[in-house]
Amino acid sequence: MKLSVIIPVFNEAKTVEEVIKRVEAVNIEKEIIAVDDGSTDGSLDVLTKLVDEERIKFIRHQKNLGKGAAIKTGLKITGGDIIIIQDADLETDPQDFYELIKPITSGETKAVFGYRTAKKPASV
Question: What is the pLDDT of residues 27-38, one digit of tens each?
């Protein structure tokens, strides 16, 4: 089982590298796809460095199109069995991936939606 982790990025230069480090620390086979959505704060420089280090796949929107558009763009190049959207703002912890995917890997459900105030992921 392989995860595709899509990280929509808009002006997150201060946090995006740390988020990617935390995603990398998750002990599950994965690909990390960052989609810069027209950032103007230096996020592009951080992401370019990470691409050069071959730590992430990267796509860039020339202008801000919104989080939904960034996710759609990332979906076009995913190769994983399960797709996770990870915000770049450090609000959610990638260590929650283990619990988040359990209902999928156990065959209980095909989709799980987590939200920031939940203690446990909510499954559909």
Answer: 999 999 999 999
